[in-house]
Amino acid sequence: FIIHIFFLAGTGVLAVGLWLRFDSRTKPLFEGVDSPSVFFTGVYLLIAAGGLMMVVGFLGCCGAIKESPCMLGLFFIFLLIIFAAEVAAGIWGLSNRDKVIEEVTEFYKQTFDNYKNTKQEALKETLRLIHFGLDCCGPTGSLFDAAKDICPKQEGLAILVTTIFGMIFSMMLCCAIKRSREFV
């Protein structure tokens, strides 16, 4: 069951990344001379992470269905790598919290100023996504309160817990498959 959730989450992340990249409202952000590199990086990371999650979920599903210790072992190794990357990203984010807040605020202000001057639909959509994603409304709104909050969000913890359970269950299934083959 957890493997299916992982696969579906990967599909969702990939879909959001592709939507942000190819939607007619956000596509002009990629084509301008002064396009924000932060937006580029974020969208391409979403696409890569979603694709990786789908591949890992596929390995887990096929490994469980075919009862393949090799595929389940690969699934475990990929989950371990993803878990290490999540922990490293969390530590980096906490240790560079002030820099991240400063860069996000600067990106927001530049985008808002550009939108005020040009009224581009792509910039409006970007601002809407920032407001929705950070649960804020403007650079002096709850953005700073949310960004300075050192407590992790529950969604981040849920992803870590799901990854840990996936690793545990993949090893349990792998061991059960090996034991059942010894008795045959």
TrEMBL record:
This protein's record includes keyword Coiled coil: no
PROSITE patterns: TM4_1 (PS00421)
Pfam family, one: Tetraspanin
Transmembrane segment boundaries: 5-22, 42-65, 72-94, 157-177
Predominant cellular place of this UniProt entry's protein: membrane
Subcellular location: Membrane
Gene3D superfamilies: Tetraspanin (1.10.1450.10)
Topological category with respect to the lipid bilayer: Multi-pass membrane protein
Signal sequence region: none
Keywords from the UniProt entry: Membrane, Transmembrane, Transmembrane helix
Family stated for the protein in its record: Belongs to the tetraspanin (TM4SF) family.
Protein name: Tetraspanin
Organism placement in taxonomy: Eukaryota, Metazoa, Chordata, Craniata, Vertebrata
